[in-house]
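Posted in: Protein Modeling Q&A

I'm a second-year student putting together a small comparison for a lab meeting, and my supervisor asked me to include a predicted structure for Proline dehydrogenase. I've never done this before, so apologies if this is the wrong subforum. The sequence is pasted below exactly as I got it from our records. If anyone can share the structure token output, I'd also love a short note on what stands out.
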Amino acid sequence: MKAFHTAITRRLSVAPRRAVDPTNTESSLAAFGSGALLARASLMSALRLPGFVPCAKFALAFGANGARSANPAYNLAGRGVLAVAQRLVEGTFVAGESLDDALRLAERLEAERGVGVLIDHSVEDAVDLGANRARKARLVDAVPAGAMVPLKATALADVAMLEELSDLVARADDPDAARLDGALADRLDSSHAYAEAVDCLAALGEAAGRRGVALLLDAERTPIQPAVDHVALAVLRRFAGAPRPALYNTYQCYLAGSGRRLRLDEAACAAAGAPFGAKVVRGAYLADERPTGKVRESKAATDAAYDAALASMLGAAAAGRPAFLVAATHNPDSAAKAVDALDELGLRRDDERVAFAQILGMCDTLTAALAAAGCRQGSKRERNSQLQRLRSRPFSTRCRARKLVLYGAFDDVAPWIARRLDENKDALGAPIAENALLWRELRRRAFGRTAAASPADLAP
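Accepted answer (user: helix_wrangler)
Welcome! Here is the predicted structure, written out as tokens:
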């Protein structure tokens, strides 16, 4: 198996054959009107201006704080700033304020582009665990079959318990292996809170499984991530023999040791007879994690770790183990290499165990290229016929190219957008690099000719 994994890693490390080609904008951007393209290209161009991102983050923080202020003048100014920001991002990066807005957008994405969805409410902070759990249960019950729903552990589990458990893991001789030690939970002062968290996630997983919905457990910051892993693995073990994982845990490849943790967890689930789900990302907390000394030395090292993680999961799937992967990436090369690997391993591009995901409004050419490469639902004829009956049937579970569709009051959305601006370069740099493709497609539509694509079009 080690030799098999090494061979697949080598395949993923070489230049892709471009089975996925985001540079074919006439095809990948066909579903976008010229007005929408112009607005998106203009916004992405603004993100490249010196100082724009810090100013945007400041404006969002000012607006969010002002909207909650009791000071009438500050409140009015804050709401004004948020109103302007809302006009810029609604429909581009977020669906709207209600779940109905998100469901309507999800219908259009599948019907027009063959793209599936992850649907989430924008609230990220835990204020009332009971309310958060009830809200998430309602969301799981409301989204269509085939959709995915992100979960945030700090909104569903007691944070003090997570900190205590992470401390126990950190004191072990082998912290990575200690995450698999179920007996650690018995040593917690807050063992009841641990049981509540596991029961909550297991109940959500059971409800999601009945409806054909997948749950994705978001990554947390390093101080509490070991506890999140421990809880996730306890939930997964409860579903031994199930056809699909109860949830997907997230693995951040900019952290040293992420590959070993992924392999340990997959092997533990395989030994327990439980399907294993992994969402593989480069990472979301780079600025916060750098001082810990646990971040990889370079972006190139992170890229290599990311491709190796995909190789590990694809190799496990090809070997017949119940390993399920969501490759969340805005990097065209990683996506193209993974699709090439699917072909070389003899896996179908629409294999239910493999999905690709991007954030709404970011790297739309990549998402469309993945759908066009076969990581989508059905044929064009099938999609056209389903357009008439889409509202009367569940979404196809064969949509493998996906978009994260967020909804919520803009006061709640603003912190989420600020965090996206603060993430690593692949989460923002790739969409900015994609901007050249947007302008190239606009020129093609305006002047009726196609400019040749260059490698610089997709340089991060």
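A couple of things worth pointing out for your meeting: The two ends are 34 Å apart (CA to CA). The beta strands are 116-121, 148-151, 214-217, 248-252, 276-281, 323-328, 354-359, 401-407.
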